[in-house]
Design a protein that fits this description.
With about 190 residues, the protein is an all-beta fold. It has no helices and 19 strands.
């Protein structure tokens, strides 16, 4: 049992985890929370999204079209701008140039997902975050092969740097901090 703000959560709600389904947490962004809603992304042989609308008391599980089937594939990062609009990124970290089926989007709170920006950079990325106060249009993605920016909801991406990072967090809508192997960098958006 896990205690969550005075509410005991029974971990047996996760008895539907499939064999070889993993939860990649290196970027610390395979979980997204908006108000009472929580999404957890999985990867590996099976890559799904777990959704709770009541702070973890009950869960629904939804399949995704993201690249999956190998232990090195799936969703590595998920972020929601609000209760409906979310974006997930990943791919196969052993084939970081592969840019097909590694980006997915939802507009119904995570119940259905569709592939987006197929055969367009970026390839594998370990972290994606919505830029605050951007109406869900601006995203930043980082991975060990670079930093990428989208101003159109993730349909198109522009590479900002080839310098590798594993995770990024926004302080506000103009300042973010990216962390990588032995480094932390401040990113300023104007």
């Amino acid at each position: 049992m896990v205690e969550n703000h005075g509410i005991n959560l029974d971990c047996s709600v996760f008895n539907n985890v499939k064999q070889s389904e993993g939860f990649f947490a290196a970027s610390d962004t395979n979980i997204s929370i908006v108000d009472d809603y929580t999404w957890i992304a999985s990867g590996g042989i099976n890559s799904r999204v777990y959704l709770s609308k009541d702070k973890g008391r009950s869960w629904e599980i939804f399949n995704t079209p993201i690249l999956q089937g190998e232990p090195t594939t799936g969703i590595f990062s998920i972020d929601f701008y609000d209760k409906n609009n979310g974006y997930a990124i990943g791919g196969d970290y052993t084939k970081p140039e592969k840019d097909s089926l590694n980006k997915i989007i939802t507009s119904d709170g995570g119940k259905t997902w569709k592939s987006i920006a197929d055969n367009k950079n970026p390839g594998y990325r370990s972290c994606v975050q919505y830029i605050p106060n951007s109406n869900g249009e601006k995203l930043l993605a980082v991975g060990f092969e670079g930093i990428d920016y989208s101003s159109d909801g993730g349909s198109n991406w522009k590479n900002l740097s080839k310098e590798g990072y594993y995770t990024v967090r926004f302080l506000n809508d103009t300042v973010a901090y990216a962390a990588g192997k032995g480094k932390i960098s401040q990113l300023v958006f104007k």
